[in-house]
Amino acid sequence: MNPEESDQRPALQRKLFDNVWLLLVLGVVLPTLSYTVWGWIELWLVPAAKLP
Amino acid sequence: MTTTVSGGGDVPARAPTGNHPPSMVRTCDTTGLSVCLTSQRFIRWHAVTAVVFLLVGGIGAVLLGLTRWPAVHLLSAEWYYRVLTLHGLDMLIVMILNFEMAILYFAGPVLLNCRLFSAKMAWVCFVMMLGGALMLNAAILSGTSDVLMTSYVPLKASPWFYLGIILLAVGTLIGVINFLATIYIANRDHTYEGSLPLVSFGATAAAIIAVVTLIHGAVVMVPTWLWSMGIIPHIDPAWYRMTWWGLGHMSQQVNVCAMVSVWYLLATMTTGAKPMSQLVCRGAFVLYILFINVASAHHLLVDPGVSAGWKIWNTSYAMYLAVLASMIHGFTVPASVEVAMRKKGYDRGLFGWLFAAPWGNPGFSGFFLSLVIFGFGGGITGVVLGTQQINIMAHNTLRIPGHFHVTVVGGTALAFMAVTYYIVPLIFQREFFAKGLCRLQPWLFAGGITLASIGMSFAGSYGVPRRHWDVDFTGAMFPVSFDSGAHAFLGLLGVGAVIAFTALLLFVLLVVAAVFFGRSNAGSPMEPWHEERQSGGAITVDEHRAPGTMALVVVFLVCFVVYYFANWKWLADVWHVR
């Protein structure tokens, strides 16, 4: 990207988009919490079936 | 042909020599990019591996298509499930991951004018991925692992099957870490200035998604491997399903991200297009990073263990942000092509730019057909099937494979084929033979896979189950029969599979012929795929106006609304309230 266009982006957005490591952390943590951890908790809370 | 190549229309200011060791870099005679020779070697190895497994998976595809066609019903039940296992894993995991590794080696070292972080890591990655793939294929073909791609427990495969997948996953993770480390040293050594080029940014997004995917793969596959050897007594099936889809579906999101990056690359290489807005395009990739992975929950929409809240949040509210990202890319890519073509003087009417586009260039036709098939076919069906209420009608029917064959095959595989028409001349430095056949191939493949997917989707609408060997349920205790329409659409699936396989075989032959026997173009630019047609000459246009693409967007939205409401109407019709 040319520097002029880069400078037109809001500072916060530029910092976020250029920070690969922050994106990596967010990209791992968000789906892991939303899909995996929440899902595992729900499965863990399912009561064990009782045999008749 | 446009030769001002870049990472999605924007070449970052580059240090003249990058940080390459002497004699480990060459300047591309076509694009002017500095090509790291170590990366070039691994692009070649991974691309060749991808093409080999594409062929193996493709042979599986045509055998399956001819088995699901009731009039042919080619394979025995035993071989059907074996080949289905092989086809799924070779296409969705082995082939695509190898191609994506090749893309990472291009989008990192080559586009950033940087040396590869570690050749040793690249070798470890490649050997583990290849070893894992061979082990996996051997386990399946030995007849000890007929568990399908999902390998849902308590189905138990040979330990070599799970170990093969673990090796593949860990090898890929090492390759992804190598890519991220390359970005780090490129930034540290200032081999580029400003932000990452858009294609590198998209590849980074794919790499980040791959990290989550591969972590899930390790978490689910290591204990299952131990279970297959009797070391662990029990694996909970519900836990397995949820965690496995963290590997199975998230890996397809890596494909989406890599495919979109290839769209931006090919739009630039074939028409000179530049993204209309870097901000918007990058924002869309960030939406992928944050939200696309939760879509794995689609596969659990009829599972009893998880709540409606979990299902609806992960398949609707959060996931729609990723759908928004796809719609943004689906607009900005063709819009950037439209602006580029109008600037060249193809400014007549609403679609003059589209008719004048270089359709004879397989790089362009492949990527544009991939975009259309992915958007109109995969995007619309994906959102509809991912709606919890509608999913109850479609779950485990052939509608699901109908959906993912237009996303992963008509979308991703076709885009990867399209970029191969540039990889071979630019990275292998060999020219293709039979350019007329090269030009035909993307059209043939797109037509075949579209027919096959339509066949699957409509047969699935009649209730035909996915995966099942015998649609007639011969010998079942209760007679089951499907409407003759279902049989007709299964026939269409078979015909489409044969056409798509013919195109796949043609692709493999063209690539092999070029790589091993093609004329070397080292020291000179590649032969152009197309010559610019006569236009009225370059003109000045508003770079933020794309009326033709806007018209296509309206058509897309109308299709979306019609399909969406047709499914809701159909859902209402299945309630026999009198």
Description:
Chain A contains 3 helices and no strands. By secondary structure, chain A is mainly α. Chain A has a domain of 25 residues. Chain A is 75% helix and 0% strand. Chain B has 578 residues and is an all-alpha fold. Chain B contains 17 helices and 2 strands. Chain B has a domain of 213 residues: Up-down Bundle (Cytochrome C Oxidase, Chain A).
Could you give a short description of this structure?
The complex is a heterodimer of chains A (52) and B (578). Chain A has a domain of 25 residues.
Structural class assignment of chain B: mainly alpha
The main β sheet of chain A shows up as: none
Low-confidence stretches of chain B: 1-7
Helix/strand order of chain B, N-terminal first: EEHHHHHHHHHHHHHHHHH
Q: How many beta-strand runs of chain B?
A: 2
Rg of chain A over CA atoms, rounded to whole Å, is: 21 Å
Radius of gyration of chain B: 23 Å
Name given to the CATH homologous superfamily of the domain at 36-248 in chain B: Cytochrome c oxidase-like, subunit I domain
Topology of chain A as a string of helices (H) and strands (E): HHH
* Spatial strand sequence of the major β-sheet of chain B: 1-2
Mean pLDDT of chain B: 92
The helix content of chain B, as a percent range, equals: 55-70%
Q: In percent, how much strand structure appears in the residues of chain A?
A: under 5%
Estimate the helix proportion of chain A, in percent. Answer: over 70%
Largest interface (C-beta under 8 Å): A-B, 30 and 47 residues
**Through-space gap between termini of chain B:** 65 Å
Name the structural class of chain A: mainly alpha
Number of helices in the DSSP assignment of chain B: 17
Roughly what is the average pLDDT of chain A, rounded to an integer?
A: 83
What would the principal axes of the Cα set say about the shape of chain B? globular
